[in-house]
Amino acid sequence: MSSPLSVIALILGGLSFIILPIIFGPIAIILAVIGKKKGESLANVALTVGILGTVVGMIIGAVVGANMLS
Asked: What is the pTM of this model?
């Protein structure tokens, strides 16, 4: 079974760990939920990566930003 939405969500979720988590993370989550509704096999993994990417990416951004200010 093909999982195009889940694959895109995985890629965006992975990117959200590093850059623009506030943008890429929610897009990954939305795509993963749509993929889950369509029965894609990687949707649960993509959803997890999207959520973790958003949260961890924001934490990393806050730590790096705080260190740049001090």
From this structure: 0.90
Q: What is the pLDDT of residues 4-49, one digit of tens each?
A: 999 999 999 999 999 999 999 999 999 999 999 999 999 999 999 9
N- to C-terminal Cα separation, the chain? 50
Q: Identify whether the C-beta of residue 24 lies closer than 8 Å to the C-beta of residue 49.
A: no
Q: Which residue has the tokens 């740049």?
A: 68
Pair 3, 38: CB distance under 8 Å: no
What residues make up the domain containing 27?
A: 4-69
How many domains are contained in the chain?
1
Query: Would you say how long the chain is, in residues?
Result: 70
